Amino acid sequence: MIELRHLTYFRTVAETLHFGRAAALLHISQPPLTRQIAALEKELGAQLFDRSKRAIQLTPAGKYFYRDTTEIFKALERAKRNVSSSSTGKSGALKVGFMMSTAYNILPSVTRHYSAAYPEVDMRLTEHVPNLLATDIEDEKVDVGIMYRPEDCSRLDSHTIYAEPLLAVLPRDHRLAAKPAISVAELADDSFVSIPRSIAPVVFDIIVNHCQSNGFRPRIVLEANLQQTIVNLVGEGLGVALVPTSMQAMHLETTVFKPLLNAPVVEVAVIWNKENSNPCIRTFADTAVEVWRKVRPVGN
């Protein structure tokens, strides 16, 4: 009968490819480890390691078994995490991912309120670019994210927090810098700095579609993964950009932010995996929506 310890032994050997080092990590001697691996291979009816060379290697069967046991251990970690959380989500662990632009408006307030309301939840925050954050949520490396709504939400649940207008960011000496508001059509001859479509397809498409609806396709000369980098590049005179309204909180002396006439909006949402049963997700999502109602700017 295969036990969890057999899988642990196997994975440790597979990751070190050395029985001696694996035994040391497992705090057992090498002969019992060797016997346990041999017993596991007999139980499975397949050789997991090729021992014919100086350095051991995983056989094709061993590689498949390693891949499949990864799913077992992911499920076990999820079960352990959920056991530590009460059914009401008032305790446990929560991994929160965020995109950097939310650090300029909603993220600080949400994390302060959530930590005060649920002090027994071990909340860990990590910054991501939008497309990688969506992938990590699907893979349950992150429990919940605050991000632009992904194109494909088929495996995700979500709750929109707010819709944020885009505005233009210009170098301070730009010809339109003195105008109170501008039409994007006035930027048709300018070079643009943009987030790549591979990083944030929703935002990229909103920008391009807005420009096209005003008679031109933006001439993108530079791409940057982070909105704050885009604003800095504009400040260096390398182009203009359309960015979320929250980015004007950067207050750079080298840039000016201008409202757009008929500005398009981008939705920011709380996103999580439908199959992730961590009860802390719901309490976090509810907190995010509640906090935005209290701190949202006038008119939003």
From TrEMBL:
The UniProt transmembrane annotation reads: none
The protein's superkingdom reads Bacteria
User: Would the keyword Transcription regulation be found if you checked this record's keyword annotation?
Assistant: yes
Q: Which InterPro entries match?
A: LysR_HTH_N (IPR000847), LysR_subst-bd (IPR005119), WH-like_DNA-bd_sf (IPR036388), WH_DNA-bd_sf (IPR036390)
Q: Give residue ranges for domain HTH lysR-type.
A: 2-59
Q: Which CDD domains match?
A: PBP2_LTTR_aromatics_like
| Pfam families found in the cross-reference section | HTH_1 (PF00126), LysR_substrate (PF03466)
Q: Any idea which UniProt keywords this protein has?
A: DNA-binding, Transcription, Transcription regulation
Q: Which family does it belong to?
A: Belongs to the LysR transcriptional regulatory family.
Write the protein's name.
Answer: LysR family transcriptional regulator
What is the species listed in this Swiss-Prot or TrEMBL entry? Herbaspirillum robiniae
